[in-house]
Amino acid sequence: MNAPLRKAGVVLLVLFGLLFANLNWVQAYKADDYRTSDYNRRVQVAEYERPRGVLEAGGKALAQSKLTDGTLKYLRTYPEKLKYAHVIGYKPVNNAETGLERSEDDFLAGTSDKLFADRLSDMFTGDNTGGGNVILSLKTKAQDVAWKELTQNERGVKKGAAIAMDPRTGAIQAMVSMPSYDPNPLASHDEDTFDKAFDKLNDDRDKPLLNRGIADTKPPGSTYKVLIAAAALQAGRTPETSIKAGPSYTAPGTGTPIRNSSPGVCPEDQRTLKEALTESCNTGFARLGVDLGADAVKKISQDFGFGQTDLTVGNLRGGGLPVASSDTGPMTNPDGGVDRAALAQSSIGQRDVRMTVLQGTMIAAAIANDGKQMRPYLVQQLLSAERRPIYNADPQVLRTPVSSQVAGDLREMMDSVVENGTGRAAQAEGLKIGGKTGTADNAEGAEPHGWFLAYAFNDKGEPVSSVCVMLENVPGGHASAEAARIAGLILKAAAGGGRD
Amino acid sequence: MSRIPGVKTRRNAELGLLGFAMVLVAIYGATVEANQLDSISPSFWVPAALLSVLFFCLHLVVRFTAPYADPVLIPAVALINGLGVGFLRRLDIARALARDEPVPGIFAGTGGRQLAWTLASLILAAVLLVVVRDHKSVSRYAYTLGLIGIVLVMIPAVLPSSISEVNGAKLWIRIGSFSIQPGEFAKLALVSFFAYYLVRKREVLSLASRRFLGVDFPRGRDLGPVVTVWLLSLLVLVFEKDLGTALLYFGLFVVTLYVATERASWLIIGLLLFFGGVYLAYVLGASVGGPFANFYDRAEVWLDPFDSDQYERIGGSYQLVQSLLGLGTGGLFGTGPGAGSPLLVPEVRTDFIFAGMGEEIGLFGLTTLLVVYLLIVERGLRAAIGVRDSFGKLVAGGLAFTLGLQVFVIVGGISGLIPLTGQTTPFLSAGGSSLMANWLLIAMLLRISDAARRPASGGPAERSAGPKQPPAQLHGAMTEVIKP
Predict the structure, then answer these.
(1) What are phi and psi of A286, to 5 degrees?
(2) pLDDT tens digits for B332-365?
(3) Which of A19, A28, A34 lies at the smallest CB-CB distance from B411?
(4) Of all helices (H) and strands (E), which one includes residue A496?
(5) pTM of the model
(6) CA pair distance B388, B49, nearest whole angstrom
(7) What is the rounded CA–CA span in Å between residue A363 and residue A454?
(8) Which of B262, B327, B370 sits opposite A27 (nearest CB)?
(9) Within B415-478, where are the H helices?
């Protein structure tokens, strides 16, 4: 019986050899994959060993790390809860970050090359210096007002967004999307808490996780007339040029007439460009758009930023929240020729024209800044853990859609909108505000969206702020009036002196 | 008589090796404390010292009752057992630190309980060595042991799940906070029974045959016992939902059968039956589900553990993935004892203890542990080769092989080599059943190795004529001989 016993010994030797070979596979060959696997909580444990940097605005911490006694040492908290959620985003334990928590992740976590010196000194001192701090361009007063006025609007609207920006620099002063969400449970170290909170938000029909200001496009309605007016001015017309208006306009080759929002608006046959914009004359602008042609309408839109698919708003050195592309729509027939009915409707911001709220803000900003459109940004400054400055935002011109002459003419007309036109609700003491209303039909039987885009000059003649407010499905008529009222208050808060 | 002084008992070698093993255990404990508490407490040596005392007592028992026993077995097992206690204590400390509790005492927590189980196990082993002075006397109770073995195997299967099921496998008897795994003890009883049965039937099984394709196959009617055990194993697989245990019992039987008959055909039949059964269970699990579903799930997990559906499914690949990640994080050298995060691996005190240790001692440490296991197994097989009676050969061979197979099944399972099945890692895993049963196994091997190395003309009881004595007769063993 000894021979089979020896063979059994050999069998075991082979089995142990297999174990050994497999352990080599797991612990040597695949070791790096496993060490850095997304499923490996040790990576997170290490990540949570040092405090993540603070995201702050105006001296107020918007996202900070709190020491706990759990396995994961630091808990991410968001003291302002809903108000800044769409800008800051959140940092979950097991899922991808969102917002600036995502785009500035390296710097906040302390792994960025910019913080190399800190890491190097940590090696010698044995400390675990925290990640870097990110100072936002947001003005807390403007954000407060934007949040309060949107969420407590007078029409009980549940969905909307507002973005304010400094026209001279591109610094975002306020960015609010409604409805919002509390990021705190999403940063919980308890997986169930995250899952429950996330599922609830994700299944919500009002999409609270969506940043309506930049990640969503809506028909801009009459705010789009500003661009048609800009194209007309570029083509040699002036604010005083008469254009054909009237109670109704039927584009060549179509049967459906375009009418004004009420019979009292530009029933006259001729109105000046300025009067037409002030009253928001649909027939006049539809006809003007058809006269200018589809190419001119598309070109002026692209000059102001329509069609840009790679814009982000965050850090000027790269990275940020992705901005959806605003779009003019094709305005063509199936045969490829210009669809004049579509062109006419597009010229008043309907049909297939879609725009983000940020695009509206950037249009107003470019007009306020003498035609120079600044690249929008949210990250004003990066500081090391010891608050040593590492980066300061250096404003950049994104594009120059119109000359300063055209920009001045547009301001003259938009000022008139707020002074004695459809945007009177935006008036604010001490500021010269110009803007444009928009009421956009969106679906059969649904209430229209209310828009207002505007800029404000202070008493020194400086363009201190530009803003765009959009409210979805506003009941009770005059949808844009409520948007204009909120815009005026935001401009006033954003124009307030000092760095907050 | 003149040869007796020339045969060394090698008890002093055992004592020396034991001392070396205990020094390693003490160093391990010190490293754990240094890494976990940033300082070494003045009492770090206490667990190692207590274990040393316990093992020394066993050593004394062996000195008096089995003086010629293999000197490597006790130190090798003591090393693994000691490291197990140290690692469990390390987990207790980690949990206390995470909860901001004071560092647990040496007798507290899982580590302390394992220390107590070690004491109980060593007492059992010593009792076995004292009571069973001749391993052949066990054969007297072979049928009783066989019955006990089968009952022990079947108890959890017939008990309601609330009492017997832990993590999907029905292997337990749980009464309150106390639980035992009867299957662990069944191994010992079944090996004794198989050995006795096969010694009696080996002539029949090895001689009567038909030749087919150059291999001698047994007659159909002689297949009865192997088919019976195969069915029993499959019942275990299906009703206790545990592939590992089924594999263990069946492997045990096939190997003792092969050793007894020296016929490779039994191995071929055994392997075909086993893999056929496993494949059948897999196919049935995929199509019929029901009692087969558990095995099918395990196989699916094994095939693609990193699939996100498998990972997120309850009872899916989470455990295996965490085990692999722990092993991978350890890499070649490991993070060092006490410096890893073994608590991230589920069931790290029992099934996954090898993965938990692997993160900290790395590939090199685990390889060393495997070599120590292999050493124990090969020493057991050597005792089987050396002992003169067939019963002793089969018992020692069966026990040693089962021990090796169990290490293969669990280590292969937690490292993704084979589908994972819940088995304890012998001498490492927390839990009294496994530790006691495996120490009894070692005591039996010690007893048989003592007989193997004892000089033929040694004791007065074994005095007999001639240098080549026939194999000792078993109690009541009437060998049936049928010539072809």
Answers:
(1) -65, -45
(2) 988 889 888 898 888 899 889 999 999 999 999 9
(3) A19
(4) none
(5) 0.63
(6) 38
(7) 9
(8) B327
(9) 432-453
